[in-house]
Amino acid sequence: MLGWFDENLVSILNGFAIGALLFVLAVGLSIVFGMMDVLNLAHGAFFLVGSYLAVNFVAGDSWGGFLAALGVAALVGLLAGGALSGMTEPLARRPVLDQALLTLGISLVVAEVLSIVYGNDVRSVSPPPGLDTSVDVAGSAYPAYRLMLIGVGLVLALAVWLVVERTSVGALVRASVADREMVSAMGIDNRKVKVAVLGIGSMLATVAGVLAAPVYGARPGLDETILLLALVVVVIGGLGSIRGALIGALVIGQVESLGRALLPDVASFILFGTLALVLIVRPRGLFAGKVAHS
Amino acid sequence: MSVQSLPAETAPGAAAAPAAPRRRRPPRALTAVLAVALLAVLAAVPLVADPFSTNTVSRILVFALFAMSLDLLVGLTGLPSLGHAAWFGVGAYTAGLVSTHWTSEGLVTVLAAAVAGALAAAATGWLAVRSGGVYFLMLTLAIGELVHQLAQSLSSVTGGSNGLFGIPSIRVAGTPLTLAGYVYWFVLAVVLLGALGLWLVAASPFGAALRGIRDNEGRMRSLGYSPFRYKYLAFALAGGFAGLAGGLFAGLVRIVNPSDAGFTTSALMLLAVVLGGAGTLWGPALGAAVVVLVRDTFGPTLEGHGPLLLGLVFIVAVYVLPRGVAGLADLRRGRRRAVLPGTDEAPA
Amino acid sequence: MSAPLLSLSGVTRSFGALTAVDDVTLDVPAGARHALIGPNGAGKSTLFKLVTGALRVSAGTVALAGDDVTRLSEPQRARRGISQTLQHSSLFLSQTVEQNVLLAAQRQHRSRHSLVPRRQAAARERTRELLADVGLAERAGTPVAALSHGERRQVEVAVALACEPTLLLLDEPAAGMSPAESARLVGLLQTLPGSVTVVIVEHDLDVVFALATSVTVLHLGRVLLTGDPDEVRASTAVQQAYLGTGREALFLDDPGPSRTEVG
Fold first, then answer.
1. Alpha-carbon distance B122 to B142, whole Å?
2. Nearest CA of chain B to the CA of A10: how many Å?
3. GO molecular function: any one (chain A) (predicted)?
4. Would you call B339 an interface residue with chain C, using a CB distance cutoff of 8 Å?
5. Are A102 and B145 within 8 A, CB to CB?
6. CA distance A187 to A193
């Protein structure tokens, strides 16, 4: 057992790193739907924008570039979310599908514009100085940058949890997931909340894109792959649930890493199998944060 | 034959429609004349058009059947699938593999494709159907993307990202169809049969039940229907017809790429359904023709960035065609009912 | 009287702290015309939903013709002969009147799996009869969305009857109907065969007393009184409430503004 653990330590750590990234990504998607009923299928495309920004600022060469990429990505994410909020407002009283189609269109446009600007080659980004080395973890060499990712994921999870569970803003978030009419009845301007939520949700996507760049690089099609994983995480965890996003991200992170390492041919089946298994037991995900539209 | 109960949505334009509803419709004679005329024009295409154009019309026919199969889900049942290309892809790969390794007898390959499409849809669809609502959108997208990735990663079977190529040409009764015209007629015959099948499903009491579920699922339950069974069967059927279209596609273009099963293809067909008018069957067929023509015409000038145009049209369509899109699916806002079910007469 | 067709015993339903239906025990004999009355918030509609299976009971049992159906789903109960009209119109709005009724009728004629339109002849014939009965023969081809409120109620009744029910639950069927429409409805319900047991919730007491062979008065989720119409009319509590506060506030000891009118 311990031997097996040693052999696969790198895969397991990779799983945690992927899980941390997926959490950052999925929590945005989940909150945006849970609070605002917007299923943002452009989330993956926003992620890819972040990755390409990392390429632009040559994030690997200096911390300045890396931090600049993070800052610009955060700003772009906020603006994109705000724009999205405005674009979905006329559709608020229409079926969820309309918003899904809109964000689908946006994601196609964004992805194609990126491929026009950056071309179709795979662009790689090296980690910032100091993190481009390997660290010894229980006898295995492991990239320091990925260890940092795990740390960032943990810190962010803790921060989000503290905000949602312990602050008045968090109380508003929880109330909004449970019953949106109640919140607007309390006299809170729904439109402002929506701009804020979509802005922060999209910002999480672009920031995740920058953070992921030294691991995944940037390439066309990455947006769809990453959106798929984020959707699976959110479905497994339960729409609108932050705890669910965390658990789902950790599970899918391991499936993606350990699963692919141990059974490379059937990794897609394992992913679907995990999804099916969870939904058989819990049709609304592990922590159903809200009753979905049915 | 009494035709009163033919659903309003099954319109007379469907090429194979043998009869038309009586009320508030063009006279039956006119419909019949139009249908025969359309059939005659379609049948005459290879005689008057050059092979390249014949080929284009063949592809339009295949995608028309594909779009109609999606309409069975989206328009009739109110289940908006974002991953319908998966079953098209399953059918295409099945037909390609059957004709490469076993026989390229046309009917065998397309039937195998239809069965494979239906089985694949049935094997995974229960998850999406059972969860319903917005989960249906997310799960069909996820399942479709998984099939797409599978096509890419199982390279020993599917040829991976190079695609499955060198598919032998379709044979009918042992004779390979080498001329575009013969292939076209084979495609036309199968597409017409498929359209007839879909039309029969839509016009049947089963189709009426699907529309009932689309409009008011709760009421259907209280009338004694089990919506899940109907939706699940509709999902598998739609998968089967998409598989049939995929099988034709493989025989026609003789190469299958993972992207044929992918998200962009699904989105393209959804656009055909939205543009054509969901729930009418013939509308989406027309939509497919427009979408294929536009893609073929503008695709080359956009240097492979066709999805850009697709995305823009999507965005515009959502705002400009609200009724078309709104009619797509009745994802009712269940929130008010979900807060305190059944307490509508409780004290305020 | 024959054995009860519908038998409720200890039926309770709570929503959090609120108990909407509280320990209701009630037998409705086969062939009865049974009315449920009581003020808004008495739990009448919730009780209906517990009978149809749209809601699960928190406690107690529901039996139909002697069989315990408490654990059966709503479609399963419907297939055993429970049919209903809902307090709030619940129709297939984009479809025509005929298509609405046909959806219910085709279930009864075992033709729903057929792909051949001709096999539906029986269901369509039954639909025509029912539309004539409720007075909508002329409107068969009209989309329901284009009908008036009263006409929609008539469609509801036709849909409910097309299920060929043994137990017919009517939740305020006459609400929003004109006096002529409501008189026609009473006439129609009076002609229903004895094989159909009817339970009706209705605020219009003319309708109630024209139809009912027995009456149950619900108050705050509990059974206040069950008896024949004369008994209910003679009851002092009933008379006081009835004469004192008028029909809408029947049996309501605190007709404050907090009790909002629904439906």
1. 15
2. 23
3. transmembrane transporter activity
4. no
5. no
6. 12
User: Which residues, including other chains, have CB under 8 Å from residue B242's CB and lie 6 or more apart?
Assistant: B66, B69, B70, B84, B85, B87, B88, B91, B117, B121
Could you tell me the residue ranges of all domains in chain A? 2-281
Q: How far apart are CA B264 and CA B267, in angstroms?
A: 5
- pLDDT band, very low/low/confident/very high, at B304 (cuts 50, 70, 90): low
Interface partners of chain A (CB pairs < 8 Å, 3 or more) are B
Residues in chain B: 348
Residues B307 and A267: beta-carbon distance below 8 Å: no
Mean model confidence pLDDT for chain A: 83
- Alpha carbon distance C126, A69 (integer Å): 71
Report the C-alpha gap between C27 and C226 in whole angstroms: 10
Stated as kind and residue range, the H or E segment containing A150 is helix A144-166
For residues C52 and C74, the answer to whether their CB atoms sit within 8 Å is yes
Contact B305 A235 (CB under 8 A): no
Please state whether at least 3 CB pairs lie below 8 Å between chains A and C: no
More confident: C149 or B329: C149
B317 near B325, Cβ under 8 Å? Answer: yes
Contact A137, A226 (CB under 8 A): no
- Look at the alpha carbons of A249, A252, A254, A256 in this order and tell me if their dihedral is positive or negative: negative
What's B192-244 look like in SS3?
HHHHHHHHHHHHCHHHHHHHHHHHCHHHHHHCCCCHHHHHHHHHHHHHHHHHH
How far apart CA B71 and CA B211 sit, in angstroms, is 12
Three-state secondary structure along B306-320? Answer: HHHHHHHHHHHHHHH
Q: Within a domain: residue C103?
A: no
Distant-in-sequence, close-in-space partners of A87: CB < 8 Å, separation ≥ 6:
A102, A106
DSSP tally for chain B: helices H, then strands E:
15, 4
For A262-276, what is each residue's pLDDT tens digit?
A: 887 777 778 888 888
CB contact under 8 A, A231 and B141: yes
Shortest alpha-carbon distance between residue B53 and chain A (Å): 29
Q: Which numeric CATH code is attached to A2-281?
A: 1.10.3470
Sheet holding C33-37, edge to edge: C82-85, C167-171, C197-201, C33-37, C214-219, C222-227
- Check whether C23 has a pLDDT greater than 70: yes
Nearest to A104 by CA among C206, C172, B267, B204: B267
Total domains in chain C come to 1
Measured CA to CA in angstroms, residue B190 lies from B40, B92, B108, B117, B241 at distances of 16, 15, 12, 16, 11
> Which pLDDT score, from 0 to 100, does residue B9 have?
39
**Are the CB atoms for B232 and B79 separated by under 8 Å?**
no
CB pairs B-C closer than 8 Å: 142
- Per-residue pLDDT at A293 exceeds 70: no
Confirm whether C142 is domain-assigned: no
- Given CB atoms, is A281 within the 8 Å cutoff of chain B? no
Instruction: Decide if pLDDT at A139 tops 80.
Output: no
User: For the CA atoms of chain B, what is the radius of gyration?
Assistant: 20
Q: Which domain holds residue C28?
A: 1-81+199-263
Contact C120 B200 (CB under 8 A): no
Check C41 against B223: CB less than 8 A apart.
no
Q: Does A106 touch chain B (CB under 8 A)?
A: yes
ipTM: 0.79
Question: Residue A146 burial by CB count (10 A; 0-12/13-18/19+): exposed, middle or buried?
Answer: buried
pLDDT single digits (tens) A228-247: 899 889 988 888 788 888 89
Flag whether C228 is in a domain. Answer: yes
CATH number assigned to the domain comprising residue C50: 3.40.50.300
